[in-house]
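Re: beginner question about structure tokens

> Can someone show what the tokenized structure looks like for a real chain? I only ever see the sequence side.

Sure, here's an example I had lying around. Input first:
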Amino acid sequence: MNTKPEIMVSVCCITYNHEQYIAEALDSFLMQKTGFEFEILVGEDCSTDATRSVIREYAVRYPERIKLIAHPENIGAIRNQVDVITRARGKYIALCDGDDFWTDPEKLQKQVDFLETNPEYVICCHHTRVIDENEETVYLKKTPVSMEFDYQDVLLGKREETRICSLMIRNIDAVRAVGQESWYFDTYGTDTLFKLYALANTGKKIFVLPEVMACYRLHTGGIWSMIDSRIRKTRMVSDFNLTIKNFKYSGLMKKELLKIYIRQYFLFDLRNWKINNAMNTIMNLL
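And the corresponding structure tokens:
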């Protein structure tokens, strides 16, 4: 009796209007050298360019590896992400958006090896090179080091080198349940809230491997990276308020969150005449 081998990793990619980038992302997934089976799930969110056609060509060439999830209408990045994750069959999920790509052919193997032998971690990340539209390096840590973060760290904004294109996470109910939280669909920096939720629900930690194994791309079509600074700050304030409303924290952590709000967001709210918002945030943290 022939049975299909068990899937160890589900590569989950969401994409929208990434015609000029998606092939590089797919090639970086396909080049992975592993001692296990992995699948590639691509959620294509009704792009207005040729993104879907590019993915379809790859899916035809690699039918056992790539599955195109073609949405008939645009559902937005968060719903696209949740939909793709719920389809994942792997023990682990590796995330990468369609405008980013991996650079190390052993990335998946290294992350699986780590998570298989370190059960106290729910997420494994690694260092990332940040590039612009001209492929020029904008950021790269010269000497990568291993790091770890727990729930309190991420709650207080400590999450260096945990970009979504580096993230591998355990495919468990405590992680997938984020798709059942209504507030999650109102987030902007969704990857941060996703990591925070996973840590809160499992009591486990994030580990960052001391290697550069992916590229994160800054470009004008990016959902977050190249938007107007005032809009970005407004969205950061919104995410901060969603965080303090939906996550638990001690009295000591509450004081630290209040310091963060005063230092980073309070004057911004006042300057934009969001006085009631500012007062509500402060009252929630007192």
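Each token stands for a local structural state, so reading them left to right follows the chain. The chain has a mean pLDDT of 94.
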